[in-house]
Design brief:
The structure holds two protein chains of two kinds.
Chain A lengths: L4 H17 L6 H9 L8 E4 L4 E4 L2 H7 L5 E3 L3 H12 L1 E7 L6 E8 L5 E9 L2 H17 L2
Antiparallel strand pairs in A: 1-2, 1-3, 4-5, 5-6
Chain B lengths: L7 H9 L8 E4 L7 E3 L13 E3 L3 H12 L1 E8 L12 E8 L2 E8 L2 H17 L2
Antiparallel strand pairs in B: 1-2, 1-3, 4-5, 5-6
The chains are: A alpha+beta, B alpha+beta.
């Protein structure tokens, strides 16, 4: 079937917008790492291991698909940060540095003796970049525990 | 999964402020309960009808406010060994950065509560611009 120029333009715009929406979910590598450290909460997106592609679906279907080794869950960034907060007491935040154009991230780990450890990263150009680096650090901390 | 999306009232407020970006969820304006429905990636563009209100994820809503209205916010945890507030007694509050100045909001028991109040505050600021 041939598409009209208008239909083709609409298709291209939709495709680009939809690809753009993928950034709401953890990238493939980090989603896989989260699975390895025990993330198994309801999600509405998953990665197909063979195609290495992301797709969204109802959380019920996602749950069924991800029982197989061919698929695994793709949490949103909010879900991932909540997972670390609630399961490991790790508080990760990314924010613009006051009076600066760049972004930073901070992670606080509360220890039983009342002390806390702070991890941080600075000078990221975008909020998204700082957020992803924060997430990578959270994964690293949990893996090295 | 519903808690990933901003509530109906705030989604409506964002719509009035001009939010119209692809979303994974939408609220039915006609149904009084305003249930949230999910949209699959490949059908995002087909769902932009007038009888629905798009349901952005929290992250999307904050990004939109940051990019369109140059106002940004972070929800962070508050506890202080010095002041005798342990992690078990922690609270959460919002930092709003506007024109290079940070202001802190009141503290709430949960992250989610603080995040929602933060969103409401940002909407209020933009509406009163």
């Amino acid at each position: 079937m041939w598409l009209s120029v208008k239909e083709e333009q609409h298709f291209v715009i939709c495709y680009l917008k939809n690809k753009d929406m993928e950034k709401e979910f953890l990238p493939y590598e980090q989603a896989l790492e989260l699975k390895k450290i025990g993330f198994d909460e309801p999600c509405f997106a998953y990665y197909d291991v063979i195609k290495m592609e992301l797709d969204t679906i109802s959380s019920e279907v996602c749950e069924r698909l991800c029982k197989h080794d061919t698929h695994f869950k793709a949490p949103t960034f909010s879900q991932a940060f909540r997972f670390f907060r609630e399961n490991y007491g790790l508080e990760g935040i990314s924010q613009r540095a006051e009076d600066k154009v760049w972004y930073k991230f901070s992670i606080y780990l509360y220890l039983e003796d009342g002390k806390r450890i702070r991890y941080g990263g600075y000078e990221y150009l975008t909020s998204e970049e700082a957020e992803l680096e924060c997430l990578k650090k959270l994964i690293e901390i949990v893996k090295n525990k | 999964m519903e808690k990933e999306f901003i509530p109906y009232i705030e989604a409506l407020e964002l719509k009035e402020l001009g939010f119209n970006e692809p979303c994974f969820g939408f609220y039915d304006d006609i149904d009084d309960d305003h249930p949230v429905s999910f949209i699959r990636i490949e059908s995002l563009c087909d769902k932009l009808k007038s009888s629905i209100t798009l349901a952005p994820l929290y992250r999307q809503a904050f990004r939109w406010l940051r990019e369109k209205h140059e106002i940004e916010a972070t929800t962070s945890c508050y506890y202080s060994k010095r002041l005798g507030v342990s992690y078990e007694e922690r609270e959460y509050h919002c930092h709003i950065i506007r024109d290079g100045v940070t202001s802190k909001g009141p503290k709430y028991k949960t992250y989610e509560e603080a995040e929602l109040e933060c969103l409401k505050k940002l909407i209020e600021i933009v509406k009163n611009k």
